[in-house]
């Protein structure tokens, strides 16, 4: 590949939202749990032809990222040490065990009212959320706010309907808005569990597949999971009713499904009124 081709490829990556160099050799993130991304991994095979020095890519520094098991252990330790939502948010912001953090501008933990009766759990920050540092502030977030308002709820403390908190399953934007990997979800899960414990909500709403699979691994896809109540067990005893719904980003692409989402919203409204 000559320099012009290499530059065109980089421009194409950038336009696709892939703006983070993770390593100088490709990493198969689907294999991450089996082949942890570490300094001591085997070296790539030598190129067939030596690259002249001026053509050679600059080496990308590789962080000594822990394996998934180590990262989950570190996340658990950090989550266990938090006694408040603010403390947990600080622990997440200080956590260095998730490689997504290196490519993110901000750590995105929550928005809305602490210990609110309604807790919404989304997927991962997108471009706007990464820029601003709050979940669900892009187009999908605006639709989510309208959906909440339609059943009399809001995340805004300045609003008389304010009774909602919003968080995510993963706290850093995946490059190019790809779906978070199993390893990334597993690493963030101890924090999410602790977020639920500290929030003690009356009802949890999971938007889309990623949050549904994070809390209920093996659950059917969102088309079959949505609209049916599940129970989330709390460490302090008791359970919280959980409703998976279509992700608002999906509803923006498939407006015909809003009919089903509306039926789910009515169930959520009734359950909140009853508790
Ligand atoms: N989608 C999500 O699931 N979470 C966000 O914060 C933004 C978009």
Automatic annotation (TrEMBL):
Q: Which EC class is this protein assigned?
A: hydrolase
Region Disordered: start-end pairs? 22-67
Q: Which CDD domains match?
A: UDG-F4_TTUDGA_SPO1dp_like
Query: A GO molecular function for this record?
Result: 4 iron, 4 sulfur cluster binding
Keyword check for Iron, yes or no: yes
Q: Which reaction does it catalyse?
A: Hydrolyzes single-stranded DNA or mismatched double-stranded DNA and polynucleotides, releasing free uracil
Q: Which domain of life is it from?
A: Bacteria
Q: Which UniProt keywords are given for this protein, alphabetically ordered? A: 4Fe-4S, DNA damage, DNA repair, Hydrolase, Iron, Iron-sulfur, Metal-binding
Q: What is its EC number?
A: 3.2.2.27
Record-annotated Uracil-DNA glycosylase-like domain positions: 109-266
Q: Which InterPro entries match?
A: UDG_Type-4/5, Ura-DNA_glyco_family4, Uracil-DNA_glycosylase-like, Uracil-DNA_glycosylase-like_sf
Which SUPFAM superfamilies did the record assign?
A: Uracil-DNA glycosylase-like
Q: Name one GO biological process term.
A: DNA repair
Q: Name one Pfam family in it.
A: UDG
The Swiss-Prot or TrEMBL record describes its family as follows:
Belongs to the uracil-DNA glycosylase (UDG) superfamily. Type 4 (UDGa) family.
What is this protein called in UniProt? Answer: Type-4 uracil-DNA glycosylase
């Amino acid at each position: 590949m000559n320099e012009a081709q290499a530059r065109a490829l980089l421009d194409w990556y950038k336009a696709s939202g892939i703006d983070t160099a993770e390593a100088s050799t490709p990493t198969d993130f689907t294999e991450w749990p089996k082949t942890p991304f570490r300094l001591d991994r085997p070296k790539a095979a030598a190129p067939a032809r030596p690259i002249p020095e001026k053509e050679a890519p600059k080496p990308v520094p590789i962080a000594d990222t822990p394996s998934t098991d180590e990262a989950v252990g570190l996340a658990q330790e950090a989550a266990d040490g938090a006694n408040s939502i603010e403390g947990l948010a600080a622990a997440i912001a200080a956590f260095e065990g998730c490689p997504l953090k290196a490519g993110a501008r901000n750590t995105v933990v929550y928005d809305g009212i602490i210990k609110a009766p309604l807790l919404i759990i989304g997927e991962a920050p997108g471009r706007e959320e990464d820029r601003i540092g709050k979940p669900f502030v892009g187009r999908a977030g605006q639709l989510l706010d309208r959906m909440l308002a339609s059943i009399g709820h809001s995340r805004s403390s300045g609003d008389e309907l304010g009774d909602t908190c919003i968080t995510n399953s993963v706290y850093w934007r995946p490059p190019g808005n790809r779906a978070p990997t199993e390893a990334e979800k597993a690493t963030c899960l101890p924090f999410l569990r602790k977020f639920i414990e500290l929030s003690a909500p009356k009802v949890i709403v999971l938007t889309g597949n990623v949050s549904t699979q994070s809390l209920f691994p093996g659950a059917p896809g969102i088309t079959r999971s949505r609209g049916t109540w599940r129970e989330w067990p709390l460490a302090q005893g008791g359970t919280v009713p959980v409703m998976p719904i279509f992700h608002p980003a999906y509803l923006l692409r498939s407006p015909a499904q809003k009919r089903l989402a509306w039926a789910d919203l009515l169930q959520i409204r009734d359950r909140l009124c009853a508790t």
